[in-house]
Structure to design on (241 residues):
C-alpha cells in the first residue's frame, strides 16, 4: 500500500477507486433502489463504533451514508472518514462528509454535504472539481430555488418534521414545502428532519427521492434490522430514474 492510499488521498481526476460513485453517476437511480440516506452523527452516541454501524447499514442495503461531526475535527475523525470511505465505496455505496470539503477531498469521500453556513457551493465546486458530489441543505423555498441553480448535485430540504437532533433547527417546513421544491427542480431531493419509519413513506409520496435519518435509525436494538425495516417501509419507491 502506498502512503497516498494510507492517507486516503484521492488525486483528481483519475485516481478514484474503481466503482466510486461520482456526480456523474445517477444518484436518482441509487435512491430509487435504496431511498434511505443514513447519517452517522458522532453526537448521537450510538452504542457501537462508526465502522460497525457502517457495516450493518451496508449489509441492510443502505447505499448513501454521511459522516456528521459538529465538534472539533481531530485527526481521529479524519482517519475514521478514510476508513469509512474505503469500506462504503468498496461496497458500491456513496460516502459523504458533512460540512467539510477539505476532509471530503482528502479522505477519499464521494462528496460533501454543505449547510447554508458552510463554504458557498461555487467555492466548494471549485475546490472539489467536477467529479465529487455536492449536497446542499435548504430550509425555505427561496433557498431551494437558489440551490436548484447552484452547482450542487442534490438538494436537502428540512426540517420536514420537528427534530430533537439538530441544535437550533430552522422552522419546520412540512410536506407541503417538499412538494413545492419537487416541482421546481429535477435534482435529487433528500428530505430531512424528524423522519421516522412511520412517516417516511409520506415524505417520498410528497416528492422526495430519499429520506435522511439520524435518530430513528438508532431507535431499535439492532441497526441492521432497523435499516432493513426502514428500506422495506420505503419500498413503494420514489421517482423513477
Ligand atoms: N439537518 P433526525 S434537520 C442534520 O433541517 C439535520 O437541514 C436538518 O436528524 C435540516 O433524523 C437535521 O434525528 C437533523 O431528526 C436530522
Amino acid at each position: 500500500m502506498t502512503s497516498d492510499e494510507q492517507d486516503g488521498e484521492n488525486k483528481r481526476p483519475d485516481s478514484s477507486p474503481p466503482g466510486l460513485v461520482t456526480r456523474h453517476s445517477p444518484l436518482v437511480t441509487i435512491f430509487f433502489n435504496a431511498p434511505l440516506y443514513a447519517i452517522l452523527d458522532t453526537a448521537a452516541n450510538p452504542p457501537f463504533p462508526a465502522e460497525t454501524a457502517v457495516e450493518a447499514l451496508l449489509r441492510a442495503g443502505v447505499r448513501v451514508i454521511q459522516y456528521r461531526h459538529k465538534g472539533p475535527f481531530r485527526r481521529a475523525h479524519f482517519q475514521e472518514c478514510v476508513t469509512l470511505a474505503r469500506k462504503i465505496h468498496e461496497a458500491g455505496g456513496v460516502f459523504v462528509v458533512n460540512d467539510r470539503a477539505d476532509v471530503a477531498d482528502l479522505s477519499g469521500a464521494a462528496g460533501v454535504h454543505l449547510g447554508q453556513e458552510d463554504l458557498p457551493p461555487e467555492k466548494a465546486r471549485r475546490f472539489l472539481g467536477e467529479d465529487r458530489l455536492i449536497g446542499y441543505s435548504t430550509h425555505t423555498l427561496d433557498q431551494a430555488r437558489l440551490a436548484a441553480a447552484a452547482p450542487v448535485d442534490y438538494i436537502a430540504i428540512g426540517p420536514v418534521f420537528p427534530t430533537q437532533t439538530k441544535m437550533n433547527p430552522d422552522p419546520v417546513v412540512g410536506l407541503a414545502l417538499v412538494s413545492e421544491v419537487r416541482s421546481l427542480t429535477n435534482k435529487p431531493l433528500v428530505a430531512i428532519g424528524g423522519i421516522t419509519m412511520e412517516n417516511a413513506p409520506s415524505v417520498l409520496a410528497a416528492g422526495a427521492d430519499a429520506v435522511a435519518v439520524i435518530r430513528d435509525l438508532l431507535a431499535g436494538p439492532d441497526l441492521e434490522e432497523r435499516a432493513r425495516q426502514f428500506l422495506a417501509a420505503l419500498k413503494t419507491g420514489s421517482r423513477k430514474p
About this structure: The radius of gyration is 16 Å. Residues 137, 139, 156, 158-159, 163, 165-166, 169-170, 192-195, 213-215 surround 3NM (CB under 6 Å).
